[in-house]
Design brief:
The chain is mainly β. About 5% of the residues lie in helices and about 25% in strands. The strands form 5 sheets. Strands 1, 4, 7, 8, 10, 11 and 12 form a 7-stranded parallel β-sheet that branches. Strands 2-5-9 form a 3-stranded parallel β-sheet, with no helix packed on it. It has a two-stranded parallel sheet with strand order 3-6. The protein starts with a strand and ends in a 16-residue tail after the last strand.
Length: about 200
Amino acid sequence: VSLTNLGNEGEVIATTSAAGAILGCTEGSFAVPTLDHCYSTGRLNGTLESAALSGWLKNGSIKNSWSIAEIVGFEDAANKHAALGRNDKGSIINSYTFYDGQGTLIEDSAMIGSGELCFLINEGEKANGWYQTLGEDAHPLPFSNHGTVYRNGALRCDGTPLGDGEVTYSNSQTSTIPDHQYVDGFCTVCGGIGVAVAGITRT
């Protein structure tokens, strides 16, 4: 079961366990759900065993997703490691949350409105699956009719910040990314592969 490009910005109130903003529970663990490019922002109120995006994934996965939802209904304090989706042998890939322990921590709420979160998820996926028209959209959205976010400032050849230089995020690419410096097929600056080297092809 694939759930893609879905968001929930409303409050979720559940009177039973395993509440989630996108998927509650895969009953009997028969389905193997995949949540891809999903998000939630509204408060989630469950009784116990709840999580921001899915209360119970079993062996499913959450990828390229994020949540800033406040969660009420963790099984216990230790269960906060499953803030995005409770699972048995499932996987959480390139996903962000306010709660530490599962996915990547959103360390500063300013990341959401500035475009930084949008850029970082796309960078992790190596694709533009999230969009945000800065100044209009409060957070990233999985819809291509919104703006593409670029990182600007002093950048290396792989697009990452150069040293401690300041970077900003914009819907316009205003920085020039320098060329790679290849020696024997490898970039001496970022380590990227330029040509087929020992059977490895640049991607």
